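Case study 2.
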Amino acid sequence: MVKSELVLEAKGLVKIYGTGKTAVHALNGLDLALRAGEFVVILGPSGSGKSTLLNMLGLMDRPDRGEIIFSAKSAAQLPEPDRARLRSERIGFVFQFDALLPEFTILENITMPARIAGRVPLEQAEVRGVDLLDHLGLKLIRDRFPYQVSGGERQRAALCRALINKPSVLLADEPTGNLDKHNGELVFKDLKAMAESQGSAVLMVTHNESARDYAARSLHMQDGVIGK
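Prediction:
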């Protein structure tokens, strides 16, 4: 089977918080590779370094050592303006809480990153937003406000928002942590479907063991390193 494009690599990532005897080694020479269209789940206990890893891969923090490569280009030590542009153009984020803006409709929330990036006309962004909602069976909530829909629908709308700019990589940090079992499994299904249909590499960190059933690969993280 022909492998898809390698879109993100982490090589030897090290991150240490503090110094001396109180230093915390959050990442200890971690390696990871993600391919287009792949849904990868990382499981591990609290304090294993999962969120630190996402902060590094999302270019929101810098490793003390190691490299982060997007589509064969080094990114870990880029100047901050270049990192911000790469985050906007190539990376989508989904967190435990949807963070939808209450004064905007669901569709307006979804298109917000496209409005900010300004790379496509608003009408084109709205068409894509509706297509994403329709793909998840949520087209009927497009004109509702966040308070008018369920928590599960808000989180799935947040997934659409993360995909509006067609990112190469989607990073999800405990996206089902605030949901019941049924809605959590819907989000897992959505992440798998979106990886396959949109071609993004999707990386999710979670405590939820059920995520293994939907992932192309599931990995375990402990003490700042990844094993299988």
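The first strand starts at residue 6 and ends at 17.
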